[in-house]
Write a structure and sequence with these properties.
This is Spore germination protein GerPA/GerPF. It comes from Scopulibacillus daqui. The structure is a single chain. The protein is an all-beta fold and 85 residues long. It has a domain at 1-25. 0% of the residues lie in helices and 15% in strands. It has a two-stranded antiparallel sheet. Strand 1 (8-14) and strand 2 (17-22) form a beta hairpin.
Length: 85
Amino acid sequence: MVDNPEQVNIGIQFDNIAINSAASGAGVFNGANNQFGWSSHAKTNSGLGTIGGHHNPLPYNINILWDNDKIDTTINDQDIMWSVK
């Protein structure tokens, strides 16, 4: 099951590099190369945080996330995208 809806389950094996999943905006590059024009932006809200370890029950749990902003993820992306033609 995928926790992030923008994440995709894949299977890539190249020598000692193993890729099982990739999120939105991910890339895998090997060797001498340049990538141009990449930009990735996202907003996440975590109502519970992260639970790690084993045997961590959360009985009778209520999580409330109050996100009362009017605009989600306003992005001022002024980076210059250089490319080779």
